[in-house]
Design brief:
The structure is a homodimer.
Chain A (H helix, E strand, L loop, with lengths): L7 E7 L13 H4 L4 E4 L5 E5 L2 E3 L32 H10 L2 E7 L8 H4 L4 H19 L18 H13 L4 E4 L17 H10 L2 E5 L15 H7 L5 H9 L2 H4 L4 E5 L6 H19 L8 H8 E5 L3 H5 L1 H4 L4 E3 L13 H8 L5 H15 L4 H4 L7 H7 L25 H12 L5
Parallel strand pairs in A: 1-5, 6-7, 7-8, 8-9, 9-10
Antiparallel strand pairs in A: 2-3, 3-4
């Protein structure tokens, strides 16, 4: 298939929340307590919520910069490409990349809304979280029907509230909700605990996909502060293997037959190994570990419940039948540094060399549309959904790389940038004094 | 190739050290302080060294038991299959499994000799460590020339002593030494620190392979004490990916051109994904992380320096050229629960279906013999090295499964055995009161 003929649905991108996002989604008495953007004397922008500053307004949102600046953490909206936070500019950026639809994870509230979970005032917390979800579903995704798979944040501190929120947003057409790769690391019970059953049941009933993004609980994986930062960047996706194993061996998948999880940004090339390993462990050990998958193998149960995705992954595509051809989806990771924007169709075409069209279609869009229940073709004819057609709709988008300045993690010549450099850079951002 | 025609060289097995092992390898004045085996009133055997008990005499050495007993931790030599600790019985067990040669990791001193490193008296420590290595090389492996790839333990607390030991054992024909997957977790500098340079240089000069076994520093990987123990068993091998990334991005491989590392028990099916990911990260990020591989890609440097291995891994074998056909080796993991003993040839034959003989030979023995510098065919003609011939040499080995009793990690019916059950079982063993 030619690049311009792909229909691309991405299941993992990110929105940088714009200032004023809560305005239309809160009753007047709550407005004053909503998170707000404050520009500081040093020119940086921070979110301020309940007296605390949240400076990482667009964590690693470096799209459109030259690669030399990928390590420079944006500290103000001026440094961001407008497509990161402006819905109309976003559509333009999607069009020039030939992307029909996408699912956006949050930035400042944390991947599963931990900012809200940390608030002592739980009425405030759930009010702001619902307003966030309403903004995301009605205003962000709702501005362009058929172009977004909306994603809700969970009130993760209360499974009953989570279940209510799943049902509430499902009525608005939202069938995806974010969750943690390891809630125990966030101070909640593990996924093996029956604590979460009301949430699983609601997702099971409503056909809502539980989306687990890398870095959503188990922390960043690093071996040493002295290690080159490339170690962390390399292993961060595959580290979701522990979450995949946790889900696979848990009672959850076997208790809730319709429940589906998406491993967001986890890659797929390691999955044939992982599933073979799981089946081996099952056959070798079930007699003393008391695991029981009935007449199935763990790999079969995995493929019934787990949606996977990749940015660019030739090994995974080559082994697509061992991964599970009906569960592989694609992601663009806009606006983060790993994104293939704006050349996604061309990069994918290389990785799809020799793959039959039927498989390409499953991976690029059919699986995503089915699992996440988006009826994109209701909103525009299929021919106008292809990469070439979308690109033709936005001929004026400026693709030139723009230097946005900022402070690199290290200016020391002759040595690799280390984990310590990058964590220090982020720690400094967090400790900026209030004004 | 038929199962009986394989020539099998395994690069990861384990020896359970027999009582009295230090006798012939220490001068008289040190004999009284050597670790010794003590049988306790409850019938259990422990190693006693400098007043401390080490109860896990043969950690998970459950070979020959029915699978229901794989979770029962051996607490006495009576519960062990003699092949685990008796060199003559070991050869019989290798023969019935068609294994020509093997490399044995230690049991009671820890994978990289941390028992010795923990001793305050460093003269005692290095004396016992050298005696251990002499026993391993001269008595264990030396009893059957050509049948073992000897492995030395490093005096890991002192890189200069490590270099001396590398050179000392190299003179005795030992070209493999154990090391940690993350020495920082053991209280030493990270592998990125120049601290280790004398050790790397000695290995580089002597052609000595640095063998890094899973679980040799970074601890066991688990998500929650509530998680089924199967989670830990499944991900333990692939967790070596963080060590692989650490090595790959470090200055070490690029500074020491002949240096080779073996990732022991890490599996291979995930490596095509990992190398593709590393190359992607390099291309996307090197301009701000300052990594420089010259005219090579990270994947090429990896294949020049890293030896991989697997127990049974169809996905890896199928993708052998993406892994690196000249660096893949095989392992048997005798006497641990994941071993394919005594059916290794038959199990391998299934995984090798359709693979050309030339590739089978590389993976089963040629790569291992070359990298670890064992000239096995000097000791016996090639025809007598094949699985079928070896099996014919030991017709009388008893292969019936034997119940050896012991305490299972959990006797509670109706639930999975958890991480907590297994760690409690091991913790109890460690806290057995002295007598």
């Amino acid at each position: 298939m030619k690049p311009e003929d792909f229909i691309l649905v991405s299941v993992d991108d990110h929105v940088v929340e714009p200032p004023g996002m809560f305005k239309q989604h809160l009753p007047p008495q709550w407005q004053a307590r909503a998170p707000r953007v404050v520009r500081k004397k040093d020119g940086s922008d921070v979110w301020v919520f309940e007296g605390a500053q949240i400076p990482n307004i667009g964590l690693n949102a470096v799209v459109g910069r030259p690669p030399e600046e990928y390590g420079m953490e944006p500290t103000s909206f001026d440094q961001l490409r407008p497509g990161t936070f402006d819905i109309h500019a976003r559509i333009g950026d999607m069009n020039v990349n030939g992307v029909l639809a996408q699912l956006c994870f949050p930035s400042f509230p944390g991947f599963c809304g931990t900012l809200f979970a940390r608030q002592a005032d739980k009425e405030l917390a759930v009010t702001m979280l619902r307003a966030y979800n309403d903004w995301h579903i009605d205003e962000w995704a709702g501005s362009y029907p058929g172009r977004f798979i909306p994603l809700a944040l969970p009130p993760i501190w209360d499974p009953k509230l989570m279940a209510d929120e799943v049902r509430r947003v499902a009525k608005k057409g939202c069938h995806a909700i974010s969750f943690s790769e390891n809630p125990e690391k966030l101070g909640f019970p593990s996924i093996h605990n029956e604590h979460w059953d009301p949430f699983w049941k609601a997702c099971n009933d409503e056909g809502t996909v539980v989306c687990i993004h890398i870095g959503s609980g188990a922390g960043m994986a690093f071996t040493s502060m002295e290690a080159p930062v490339d170690v962390m960047i390399t292993v961060q996706p595959i580290n979701i293997v522990t979450c995949a194993a946790d889900l696979l061996w848990s009672r959850v998948l076997r208790t809730f037959p319709n429940l589906k999880f998406a491993l967001s940004e986890g890659g797929i090339g390691w999955i044939p190994y992982f599933l073979e390993r799981a089946d081996y462990v099952y056959k070798h050990h079930h007699q003393w570990t008391f695991q029981d998958f009935g007449k199935k193998l763990p790999s079969e149960v995995f493929r019934e419940h787990i949606i996977t995705c990749f940015i660019d992954d030739k090994a995974g595509i080559q082994n697509r039948n061992l991964v599970g051809i009906d569960t592989i989806t694609w992601e663009c990771d806009y606006p983060h540094s790993d994104t293939t924007w704006p050349r996604a169709p061309e990069i994918l075409a290389e990785s799809f060399a020799g793959v039959p069209d039927a498989d390409v279609n499953k991976i690029t869009h059919e699986n995503a549309l089915r699992h996440f229940r988006l009826d994109a073709f209701k909103h525009r004819p299929k021919a106008k959904c292809r990469a070439g057609a979308l690109r033709a709709e936005s001929p004026g988008v400026d693709l030139s790389l723009k230097s946005q300045g900022g402070k690199p993690p290290s200016e020391e010549k002759g040595r690799f940038v280390s984990t310590k450099d990058v964590t220090t850079q982020l720690a400094t951002a967090f400790s900026t004094p209030a004004e």
